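Notes from the 1:1 (GR / supervisor)

We went over the backlog. Supervisor wanted to see one worked example end to end before approving the batch request, so GR pasted a single chain during the call. The sequence is below; no edits were made to it. Supervisor asked that the structure be written out right there so they could see what the output format looks like.
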Amino acid sequence: MTPRIAIPVPTSKDPEYNQRAWPRYAAAVSQAGGEPVAIDLGALPRELRSLAAGCDAVLLPGSPADVDPALYGAQPDPASAAADPAREAVDYLLLEDAEACGKPVLAVCYGIQSLNVWSGGTLVQDLMPLPVNHAAGGKVAVAHTARVAPESLLASLLEPEEAPLVDGSLRLPVNSSHHQAVAAPGSGLRVVALSTQDGVIEAVERAVGNSQETKDIAETRDSGDRAGTTGANGTDGMVFHVEHSGETPRRRQFVLGVQWHPERSYEISAASRAIFSRLVQEARPFAQSRIEREGAQTALSHNSAPSHTEPYPIRTTKARSR
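Structure output shown during the call:
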């Protein structure tokens, strides 16, 4: 029973980027025990829905595009890259399917930004200049550290050897390849990691349960500002955000978004491997249900076929890899 993980092709505009980037996500999923399924951005909506139904989890990868600022009510910044409507449409369809079914979601770099905007949040359109070079790129193995809330889902995936506890938070070394970031977290998401040096939001996850019972771990910086990365409450403090007060508690669903690229550090980082392993682990019950459902459909098809003819073949649509 191998869980099938839907991974959109990163961009509709840069085939070279796709050929370079997508296989890294696929390799990480495969090594974690899953089956990567490429989701073609040019597929028809009916095909996309069929592919989504046949997958057990969603992995939203990075992209050279930026999310359309109009989707979160902002005017485009001159530094923003062009949007990719085809990618946005596929992300949203996959997120809607995952939300409806409770399927696990992992969102990386552009993916965390897409997830956040789909959830009703906003983005910082350009982080420059900041003390940290967040656009360091793939050649820099460790660009900075992230402060991870110790009671978060993300923290449960970390080992003290890689992410020691310092001043009340775990310090995880991460790579960095972005110029935008989450500003106000979307509905149902909470901030669980910040850049140690400048407070840029580095990770969000699905807030589960009663917000009054979820501990709000917060620490305000003594001085300085967050270069436009203010939280939903409009303050400049470094705050691990708990879901908005009064929201209806969400049912349990694995949703984790990280601003760095764990697929790039899979071989050298236990945390990166743990992130992908947890995604595949969370997808296994959905894979089991899918296999049972497909088996029942096959049996029904055979039983309902006329006795004087061969059973009708079951036609499946496979994702097209690039």
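Supervisor's comment: The radius of gyration is 20 Å.
Batch request approved.
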